[in-house]
Amino acid sequence: MDMYSDITLTVNGESVTRCVESRTNLVDFLRYELGLTGSHVGCEHGVCGACTIRMDGRIVRGCLTLAAQAEGAEVWTIEGVSETNEIRPLQKAFVERNALQCGFCTPGMLLTIAELMERKPDASREEIREFISGNFCRCTGYQAIVDAVEIAREKGANS
Amino acid sequence: MKPAPFAYAKASTLEDALSLLAEHGDDARILAGGQSLMATLNMRLSAPQVLVDINRIDGLAGINDTGDALRIGAMTRHSDVETSDLIAQHAPLIAAAVDHIAHPAIRNRGTFGGSIAFADPAAELPACAMALDATMHIAGLNGERDVPAADFFEGLYETAIQPGEILTGVSIPKIADGWKSGFMELARRRGDYAIIGIAAQAKFDGSTFGDARLVYFNAGDRPVSTPQTAALLNGQGWSDDMAEKLAASLKRELDPPDDLNADGPMRKHLAGVLAKRVLGPMAGA
Ligand SMILES: Cc1cc2nc3c(=O)[nH]c(=O)nc-3n(C[C@H](O)[C@H](O)[C@H](O)COP(=O)(O)OP(=O)(O)OC[C@H]3O[C@@H](n4cnc5c(N)ncnc54)[C@H](O)[C@@H]3O)c2cc1C
Ligand code: FES
Ligand code: FES
């Protein structure tokens, strides 16, 4: 037990080993230690969703998870899922529908919606709104985001 | 903000966690899902010296059928409760409540035991635990003890869990034939803590209520049971007249606080509105 923790985890498919201050949260670790600045930091108390990342197959708040807790975990960030083309149809639909303006919320929003499409592929517009209720967007008014989810679902892997 | 420095210890067994807590006393805090604790650390509302992480302890997570009850392990994540067939079948009140807790990413980490142990008066699960007569299982260095929900919530963020103890699980009696439950909350936005909410359960003979239990959340410093109002329902069916009687009784029986979202009188009014919206449909009206 220490003020520092040694961790080894997989980030975007690559193994990473570091020694971190135990109080370091996961999103700061990704941004400052690994230079993966795609995950954003807004409120730092779980409210805005900008820091959303995927850990062991599920989205989590990067600001409410310690890097030390990610020992042995498989972490994916927006950089990783963009590179693998996993969310390409969704990203295209975001562009097509103008579902981002400043883009601050977008990485967290995309990872959240990727989980929605997997867990609730037939979600209604209302259910889409519920699922993204923890991801604040100050620009778009959400309408375009919900539209983009529907477009991405229709076009699917064909786009 | 960032948390003040702390040491981090990953407990591998319950005994390990209990001895770490014993060793560090008041300086240590249990880290479960972290969805309440990490936020308070980030805002420096608290600054423990040591965090004892109980996430890797085998056997603390999972939902088990124990015959007449379901035992929900303390480290069971909200999202696993949400998708559990056992919960859907035997604990419909919990099933109805759980997706009102925060948002998907928070439910993926936040735990059943953490919600019960944190005892936020605005939280859904403590009220459900009261309405269902749940039993809390608490472990200490001297063994495990059971505390009924009615004796567990002692005040604002205060529970029967003593320093050095860990909540290991909660047993929820399975819903019996003829019983129905109802749940509703009023919140400004989906996922926000409720302005006020209700968890209800009753036994029905046709459309006649029996053994009704009504528990409100965010209506006091802990989940608030309203036995006098519930008693008005027993032996009766649903009617507009009943709705009015309940609303009047709730105004006498509840003494909710004022805050930025609503003042006490407004909460009293909303308690009556919730009773009407939940209990009428339960009786098939
Ligand atoms: C934006 C946001 C919105 C939220 N909205 C809601 C909501 O609407 N309704 C709701 O109910 N909750 C809400 N929450 C809180 C969430 O449900 C938490 O998951 C829950 O309150 C605490 O569970 P945890 O496992 O995360 O506990 P932690 O944050 O890890 O711990 C909370 C406290 O309980 C103690 N503790 C935890 N587990 C145990 C145990 N097994 N034994 C003894 N002590 C223990 C810890 O030491 C700590 O003091 C919200 C959180 C956020 C960030
Ligand atoms: S920065 Fe994590 S939720 Fe806002
Ligand atoms: S695009 Fe600016 S916050 Fe969503």
Short description:
The complex is a heterodimer of chains A (159) and B (285). Chain A is α+β, with helices and mostly antiparallel strands and 159 residues long.
Indicate the topology.
The complex is a heterodimer of chains A (159) and B (285).
Chain A: E1 4-11, E2 14-21, H1 26-33, E3 52-55, E4 58-61, E5 74-76, H2 78-83, H3 88-96, H4 106-119, H5 125-131, H6 143-155
Parallel strand pairs in A: 1-5
Antiparallel strand pairs in A: 1-2, 3-4, 3-5
Helix pairs in contact in A: 3-6
Chain B: E1 7-10, H1 14-24, E2 28-31, H2 37-42, E3 50-53, E4 63-65, E5 69-73, H3 78-82, H4 85-90, H5 92-98, H6 104-107, H7 112-118, H8 124-131, E6 135-140, E7 143-148, H9 149-152, E8 153-155, E9 158-159, E10 166-173, E11 179-186, E12 196-205, E13 208-217, E14 224-225, H10 227-233, H11 240-253, H12 264-282
Parallel strand pairs in B: 1-3, 2-3
Antiparallel strand pairs in B: 4-5, 5-10, 6-7, 6-10, 8-9, 11-12, 12-13, 13-14
Helix pairs in contact in B: 5-8, 10-11, 11-12
The structure holds flavin-adenine dinucleotide and FE2/S2 (inorganic) cluster (2 copies).
Relevant terms:
heterodimer; A: alpha+beta; Ubiquitin-like (UB roll); 2 domains; 5-stranded mixed sheet; 6 helices; 5 strands; 17% strand; B: alpha+beta; Uridine Diphospho-n-acetylenolpyruvylglucosamine Reductase, domain 2; Uridine Diphospho-n-acetylenolpyruvylglucosamine Reductase, domain 3; Enolase-like, domain 1; 3 domains; 5-stranded antiparallel sheet; binds flavin-adenine dinucleotide; binds FE2/S2 (inorganic) cluster
